[in-house]
Amino acid sequence: MIYPKFPSAGDTLGICAPSAGVGAKLESFNLSLETIADSGFKLTETKSVRNDAYPSAPADVRGAEFNSMFDNDNVSMVLCASGGDYCIEALPYINQELVASKPKWFCGYSDPTAIEMLLTSKLDIATIYGFNAGGWDWRPLHEFQHNGLAVLRGEIPEQHSYEFYSSKGFDDETLTYEMDAAVKWELYTPTTSSSGDSDVPGLLPSSSLKVSGRLIGGCIDVIDCLIGTPYEDLAGFCARYADDGLIWFFDNFALDPLQVQYALRKMQLKGLFDNARAIIIGRTLIPGEATDEDYLNQIGRVLADSGVPLIWNADVGHTKPSFTLINGAIGHFTFDNGSATLSMELK
Fold it and tell me: Please, is 73 exposed, middle or buried when counting C-beta atoms within 10 Å of its C-beta (0-12, 13-18, 19+)?
């Protein structure tokens, strides 16, 4: 696994927009950039970042701007400006030889999962999942945002589950993210699908887990679309790091329970969970009318008898607060009665 050099104080971070532009949210974006600059970094942006467009520019332009950040020796790390839906369009225009010859940290979350899977699974370059460049716009900053900044500096903090999360997102009246809902991580161990001891077929509630493995994951909506294209090699990644074991983490933006089951089943049938030591799934941002039980019933159909523990409703992904995770790092994960901690090693 290639771990690029972390930037030092005074180094320049490059921001590109391989998916959406940020023209519609410049005030909050600029607030976030102030936070990054106050952390000691200089910033440079590609031309399309501030476009009020979705996507930010034609796919070939977005790919070329991404490449320019890697080709610029003055740029120490690359941040994705925003999420969206169109990173996958830019993948054919990413110069993989250039990126492999000048590896740098790439940080993004949600739609940028597509680029992270390309870099980490095909090129063996570790990537950072958890923040886009506009993600530090809260005042005051929350602990999870301080943790994300620490990771950018190469300080890898131990992260812990939180007490409350924001179930409704940004509140236009208070201009804040109200932490209004209790965090409740859950742990399940797989069992026979016909077991009568569980409320969820295929899954039994458990209270504790301690596991280590190489971290890999991101937005499951994107991973599902990416599998089978020339821009991922998750099967190769799993084979190369089989001896380490894998900890998969998934951020579900809006897949319904059946879609999650299909996505996980596809991965299982491809052997991607053969050496998994745990699967962690964050809170779904847009569940529609679906309940946790609806999701767990479908997931249990996939994991029954697999031997792979499931952590559900984790602080991963679109609902905040959330962990910052390094694709390719060794994760050490401890779960105890609804609380969890994660530390990461770059080896």
Answer: exposed
